[in-house]
Design goal:
The chain is 31% helix and 34% strand. The strands form four sheets. A five-stranded parallel beta sheet has the order 2-1-3-4-5, sandwiched between helices. The longest helix is centred in the middle third of the chain and has 17 residues. It is elongated.
């Protein structure tokens, strides 16, 4: 049985696809997500084998969502769309297949065969993805999209990953690894990424350690390992 996750902003489409997947007898549907933020959390938690992903969604579309998934938990992807203009782009992103809405049983059967063959070969999906321009964060009960240019630093603690800006800090489900690889943020500590454009100064400490002072006055730790790299970037 293949473990599937459905991501679509339309409730009718989610429920209809869930019913069709269960009818094939080949899938366990782990859940249904209405947006990218729900999807990232579910993927990190459930580790699905395959993602049935709508392309055109509000705030963060399907292609942008793929850029936010850690490659260690990246599922196979089948795009589901009402617009065939996205088909070529879907294959550019290495999607296994795409389905046009409304999804037909015969066409879904072909997708199932493709999935089975891929899993039998043991192939792991790889997506280059887009650079992340805005980071989805949880603010109260809402989703807040924070432009990378406004972020001073990102810190990882036991309770999760937090994006820190001039006006506060916000929880995100994205990992430091993804943010380091898909944004301009630079690692200055095992658990911290910093925006070099918002660095005011680097303050040396004992034992080859340092602190970064951001333009808003916050202090960010710099470990010995990354101090040399930051010096090279700042040319001092």
């Amino acid at each position: 049985m293949m473990r599937a996750l459905i991501v679509d902003d339309e409730i009718y489409s989610r429920e209809e696809l869930e019913s069709m997947l269960e009818e094939t007898g080949e899938f366990i549907v782990l859940g249904k997500c209405a947006n990218a933020v729900e999807a990232i959390r579910a993927i990190n938690r459930e580790r699905p084998d395959v993602l049935f992903l709508d392309i055109q969604m509000p705030a963060i579309n399907g292609f942008e969502l793929l850029s936010m998934i850690d490659e260690k938990v990246m599922p196979s992807v089948v795009f589901v769309t009402a617009y065939d203009e996205y088909a070529l782009k879907a294959f550019d992103e290495n999607a296994l297949d795409y389905l046009l809405k409304p999804v037909g049983k015969e066409r879904l059967s072909k997708t199932v065969d493709k999935l089975k063959k891929q899993f039998a070969r043991g192939e792991k999906p790889v997506f280059v993805g887009l650079d992340i321009q805005k980071i989805p964060c949880i603010h109260s009960t809402k989703i807040k999209l924070i432009p990378v240019a406004e972020i001073e630093y990102v810190r990882s603690v036991e309770s999760g990953v937090y994006v820190v800006c001039r006006n506060g800090e916000f929880y995100t489900d994205l990992t430091l690894q993804i943010l380091e690889s898909k944004t301009c943020l630079v690692r200055c500590h095992k658990q911290v990424l910093v925006n070099m454009d918002l660095v005011d100064e680097i303050i040396p400490r004992e034992n080859m350690l340092a602190d970064i002072k951001t333009k808003s006055g916050r202090l960010v730790p710099v470990s010995r390992r990354y101090l040399k790299i930051l010096r090279e970037k700042l040319h001092f």
